[in-house]
Structures are given as C-alpha cells and as structure tokens.
Design goal:
Elements: E1 4-7, E2 13-15, H1 21-28, E3 35-36, E4 44-48, E5 54-58, H2 72-87, E6 91-99, E7 105-113, E8 119-125, H3 131-143, E9 146-153, H4 154-168, H5 170-176, E10 187-191, E11 204-207, E12 214-217, H6 218-226, E13 230-233, E14 236-239
Parallel strand pairs: 8-9, 9-10
Antiparallel strand pairs: 1-2, 1-3, 4-5, 6-7, 7-8, 10-11, 11-12, 13-14
Helix pairs in contact: 2-6
Length: 240
Amino acid sequence: MSQIAFSAETGALIEAFSLTDETWETLRTAPLGALLMPRSQWPAIPKTSIKGLRFFAHYPGYTGVKPKPESYAHTRLKIDILKAARTLGFDSQIEAAGRSPDGAEWIADVLVTLPTGQKTAFEVQLSSQHLADFRLRTERYRHSSVACCWVVSEHPVASRLAKALAYDNMDWYKKHGELLSESEELMVLGLLLEDKASYPAQPLLRLGYTQEARKLTIQEAVEGVLRGRPRWEQAQWKWY
C-alpha cells in the first residue's frame, strides 16, 4: 500500500490523502493501468480502508516485493507531519525515495526541504527496531546530507530504545552515576498510542526524558525540528 501513485500518461505524482472526494471517485473508475505504483510501475488500484483511509495498492498478480503494510496510526501520523510542514510553507514529500552517494537506497516517510536546501527526513517507527537499525538508517540519511528525526511509539519502541541506549552508554553511568537514555545521533519524539489501529484525537509528541522533557503538538514539533529548536546539550536533547 502507498499514499502515492503516478499518472501513466503524464507521470504526475498523485497523493491519495490530498485529493478531493470528487477526484478520488474519478480515479476509482479510471481504466486499469492509468495509475502506476511508485518504483514497481505496476498498475495501482485506489482503495479506501474501513476507517476511511485512502491508499493505493498493487493490482493483483504482482510477483515482486511489495512494501510492508502500514498501520492506520503510521499512515495518519506521517500525513499529519507532512501537512504540518506544508502549513509552514516548506516543500514536503511523502514516501520520498533517495539514494546516498555510496548507492544505499532509502524511502523517507516524510522528506522536507527548506529554502536553504537543507533536507530533513521524518521517520515514523511504531514497531520495535534494534538500536543498530536506528543507527544504520540514520547514518544512511547523514551520508545523503539529510537530517533525521524519529517519531516513535512510547510503547514499545521508545521504552525499548531508551533501555538499549542506557546499556550502550554504560561507561557514562559508571562515570556519572546516572543512566543516559538518549543519544546525540538520534533525535527521537515519542507518541503515546493505545494501539496501532487507533490514533489520538490530539496527538502530542514528547522530546526528552528528564524534568525538562517537552510535550508538543505535531505542528509545534515539526516547526521546532525544522527551525533547529531541539539541541543536544549536557548529554540530552533540550528544547530552545
């Protein structure tokens, strides 16, 4: 499934979430092959989930590797991040593909480009992932001159990541007598979710773990990240 498809005739990018109801219904009756899935170029089918979420899917018969299905919360979150960045007037793409100079490919949930040319990827991660994978994917962006901000579920992702970082930073604990559950290389915003099939009416993102931790709306968080308000200082992320 994907939030984007391409017109086979013009090559124009089509976003499922940003279309009017009328345009979406027109696409649903378009002839097979009029829409193509990104990267595979296989015919795309417009669909709507039982929760009313629009998306594009591969027409039956595709034998290649399909993207992993995304949860309702994952899709809603990346759409809200994209809309927040566009509200600020910044060029923003959903499911944006890129390649680092050494040939490593990546697909950013949301990629924002500032007027200066600086790019920031917002990566939504609601399922557990090894610390090494966080670092590998972040480094891949860094090699592409792209900053990265992780938006993760508080449970299980943020809690497990904090434990992994604390263990990895054991030398800090031995020297200072306190656990270090953050990392300068990983900017992480946490979101409290009941489950991945639901989405908060007013989602709040958390930065940091100490008494200085901030809870922010998606709009506040996205604007702050893009304007450089989170800064690494005294072994923790702080909001300025």
